Amino acid sequence: MPLAAAWLAAAALGTRYSPLGMALDALVLLSLLLALRLSARGPIALWMTGVLYALLLVAAPAFKVAQLQLPILAADGTALVALLQVLSGWRLWLAATLLAGVALLAAWAWWPRRGGWHGLLLAAGVAAAWIVGAGGIDAGLDRAAPLASPDDLVERLERRGGGLFLMADFADYRREKANVPDARAVDRALEGLSPPRMQAGPAFRPRNVHVVLIETAWDPLLLGHYRFSRDPFDPRFRRAMQQSKGSAALVPGFGGATANAEFEVLCGLPATRDQVAFEHDLTRPMPCLPRLLREAGYLATASHPYRADFWSRDSAYPLLGFERYYPVNAFELDDMDGMFLADASTYRQVLERLDQENDPRPVFNYVVSLSSHYPYERAAHRPDRITVTPKAPLLEAHANAIAYSTEAFMDYVEAIQARDPDALVVGFGDHAPVLGHAPDPFELSGIVMPTRRDAIGASPLIESPAHSRVPLLVFDGRKGVVPVGELPLFALADLVLSRLGEDAPRTWLSAFRDAGLDASRTRMFLGHTLIRPADRWQLCRGKHPGCDAARALRERLVLLRQDLARGEQHALAWLAVPELASATDMALEKPHADCGLEVVAWGPRDLVRGAGFNVQADGSSSFWFQLESARGQPLLRIGEDIRVPMTVAGLNASAGLDPATRERLRDGDALAWTCPDGSEGPIGQLAIREAVVAPAPVVPPAAGCAAGVQDIGPREIHAGEAFNVQPDGRSAVWLALAPGSRGFELKLAGQPVQYFLAGGVATFSVDETLAPHLRRPGAVPLELSCEGEVVARAEITVR
Q1: pLDDT for the residue 700
Q2: Over the stretch 111-157, which tens digit does the pLDDT of each residue have?
Q3: Which residues of 414-430 are buried (b: 16+ CB within 10 A; e: fewer)?
Q4: What are phi and psi of 654, to 5 degrees?
Q5: CA 663 – CA 665 distance, rounded (Å)
Q6: Is 114 helix (H, G, I), strand (E, B) or coil?
Q7: Contact between 629 and 653 (Cβ < 8 Å)
């Protein structure tokens, strides 16, 4: 039954397991259950095992396909850690709760009864046997019943079932990790090529190069099912796209793994199917774009206003040749969109740093932007500019985020051109956005990846999907925007160097091109081979000579990448440039600490003993904080022994206390923030007074309705800025009520408010209908009424 339910759920999500796939899943699960039966503590434990198998190996891959159009893969363990690091608020708590729940269920289901360890060991042996044999079984099934497309991972999942698919992928993953090309393999990959010139020639005339990865930059207007109140792209950005005559970059993935896009752009070699290069492959110095330009006399810098170790950039960037790396610790966090620094602030600080740079060398300035990152949150002073019809909240959030992001990018380009009219500026997206699946905006607009059901009777080549392309803009000094066509991201390094002149260094792609092998006409996207046999990109769905040639060429590039990234680097010996194999130093610029807070205001400061304050829907009480800056994940320390997590959203934070913790508060307790590294700083001191009988509330004639206001918080806010931020990211207001208050209607500026009442405190969140009233300076009235008669009033001052 669990499997049947999982198959139905998968079908509802768009993944339809074949009869063979279902049979294989049933066989794997049955063999595990028979072994576990010797040690299980009863039928409920066996049922729980079936539920976990169906959930994790059958339903979860289908859910990931619906979200990211790829199944769960063996390398996703690292990606999961990265995902948890970029989630915040309720999304992080939900993900953590789900993971903890699965772990507890697994422990409960498999913990053997007394003396039953032999059954658990037998089950472990059965699982190991399946894992060891999965690769061979998968290969045998490939021979017996070939897939319509050997690249299609979704088709393979449907034909093999979730369990065998993941185990076979794990075998491939381990084999790939262990595979280090030998000299003969590298010689075969380089056969027919002449060594490219990776050093600048004597006539090379350097000029400044600026390369920008624009997070999740993709054109929402391609979603034809929807209407937008205005173009999501900044008008200057759209005009530059038109001047580029359809130039675009073809990306390796969808919805994430930005580091793979970075590797391709910087190193000129393709990302592999299921591994993030910075995490898994990169262990040796490589002749990437930063290194080649550094050898040619450039100062090579990277700016990425997030954690230095995210996707292992702190260890990967020096291997690529960067001389300086500016992570989040190098930036003032003065304007936040959710948990990310706003692009406008990022670009402004990068330019200020360049203006202050005393180094006379030309600069290779690489920037990764972040404020249009999922979940596309924005500060209150960046209100919605765009509405989407029919309603699609996540799409609307992305459209608004990318409107501000493209505006900031064009301001940055214009500022660079004003300083240096000859500079080369390149901007590109890293992948299409995640927009949800219920419904899926891509599917509603006809933008889908083909499945095995589409392959029956279909052409071996079909139009490549629109979400494989992202904007690519090249501003070539005084020439302005130049058309460069549609290129895979790994061709951008060669493109940048080619724009710098004939005597500039070259990449590996130039060697293939000189030999008549245009590697920039092949690309892998979501497990599918894309080729460009003529003037447009197409996706391989069956047997085709061009597809076979493209796969063979890509394999040569991948083998070259493996040799250079983690092998013996035989290719560098062939180049006769051993100096490119030597390590270079990189300065990690971190003037600011990893963790810390600067609090400018907080509340409530005065509490009533035994009473809740700023009460939330779950019954907890909450402190709010307005911040000058925030870094890392600090805790709130109250007194000597109370420590609670803080939820930080931009320049606002909150910390919730359950009723038991609230009862431990004492008058005079000091509040401070504290960080894992031991650093801490003072916030203020609590004042707790004894409860007193308040004046009788105003009671209207209607029985059962009364209201009186003793206190309100916050009393004063700044126009357009978030305040008292809750875990869901919304601002909140609280009112301490007179005893007996109940049954009243609450209005803010005449707008009815839905509130939550607990412990004598009413709280409400500021939604999209209330937010406009708090964006204009002035006094915003709050009225409490019974049957239309106002019985109590308060106000919030907006500065």
Answers
A1: 45
A2: 665 555 565 666 667 777 767 777 777 777 777 777 766 667 777 77
A3: eebbeebeebbbbbbbb
A4: -145, 160
A5: 6
A6: coil
A7: no
